[in-house]
Design goal:
The chain is mainly alpha-helical and 143 residues long. Helices cover 66% and strands 4% of the residues. The chain has six helices and two strands, in the order E-H-H-H-E-H-H-H. The chain has a two-stranded antiparallel sheet. Helix 4 crosses helix 6. The protein is elongated.
Length: 143
């Protein structure tokens, strides 16, 4: 199972992790960002403190090593938070959800997020075109 490092791993950290025979390492925040989700280390720390996540394995330098399961749990918690659940409600929901149910929620959340991301990108392109067109019209009007 792949491991993911949260923080800014140094070359030494990466080398230390490789000697432990981890198949692949990358930053969890970067991986989540690829999926359209922003997260901070303090937010992850809160998830651990609230016992919504198991304690995540760490490198000797203290960087968290995420498995794909850890990433999915993080996304699940974020999705539940966005639904307005309190941490106690999240604890209850997670404790009764099967692994399959959790995976379905994560996949649905990511698909919604991806659609939203594409819509925002399209809006940005349209806004950029509109601004450029307005600028050109103003410039032509000035002569």
């Amino acid at each position: 199972m792949d491991k993911v490092v949260v923080g800014s791993p140094t070359r030494t950290t990466m080398e230390n992790a490789k000697t432990k025979h981890l198949p692949f390492m990358y930053q969890a925040r970067a991986e989540l960002a690829k999926r359209g989700i922003a997260i901070t280390a303090p937010r992850i720390r809160r998830f651990e403190q609230w016992r919504l996540m198991e304690k995540i394995e760490r490198t000797p330098k203290g960087y968290r090593l995420f498995t794909e399961s850890d990433l999915n749990r993080t996304i699940l918690i974020i999705a539940l938070q966005e639904l307005g659940m309190s941490f106690k409600e999240m604890q209850s929901a997670i404790s009764v959800m099967t692994e399959k149910a959790q995976k379905v929620i994560v996949e649905k959340y990511l698909s919604i997020f991806e659609g939203e991301k594409e819509r925002k990108e399209q809006l940005a392109i349209e806004a950029s075109r509109s601004i450029k067109t307005s600028w050109l019209k103003q410039r032509r009007a000035r002569g």
